[in-house]
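Let us work through a complete example step by step.
Step 1: write down the sequence.
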Amino acid sequence: MSCCEQLVKILHRLFLAILFFFFFGQSWADDRRIISTDSPQALLAIGKLSIPSTRYENGEKQHYIEDCSATVIEDRYNQRRWLLSAWHCIEHYNDLGKRIVFRVPDTHGQWHERDANIITHGGSMAEDWALLITETSLPIDIVAIATAPYNAGAVIVAGFSGDKGLGQDGAVLTYQEDCRPSASPIDANQYSVDCWAFKGASGGAVLQEGKLVGVISQGDNAGSASFVDHDVYAERVTRDLP
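Step 2: predict the structure and record it as tokens.
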């Protein structure tokens, strides 16, 4: 067989593989859903966090917006101001003159916007969580959810993934149910689950029975995501909540 014939054969196989993935692969592998009226109500506690950030690349200062997710959590006075997200989302926020903005929809589908301030955080990828507070309370129609310890088993993973597929560049909340953890945790602080998460979902919610049991740290864009366990941040968050 000539080199030309071999090349044609390889290209033909590659073409068939691409066709198979296009028609079957994505829908078969990506089991996320877009939030709708029949979705769990706890998902309405998740909003979008936009963080003005700065970092140096090749010696030059780069300004950009870090898009992440955050969850409104309950406090004793029902203030609807407290947010849990991921530390790496705020890692490069160093200009206090610029606004961190949180946007979240209410139970009627209307979006609300508030400036947010950082209260405390884990300070590393090993403890990839952050607590923020909005400058004023969100409306009463905004859902806030309780935090709870993670119990080994299935979870819901949800956030504003920025993929061009179901996530629509971060325009809609996507979530996946029945996410199963790996046989052993990544380390003492994080677990891996067999669910999809893309850039933008970081800081999003890991849910069990309508409660927040973890914070999405990162996804590999290929059917696996990691999250920070509730026990990692529980003591410090409880200490700061009113």
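Step 3: interpret the result. Residues 3-29 form the longest helix (27 residues).
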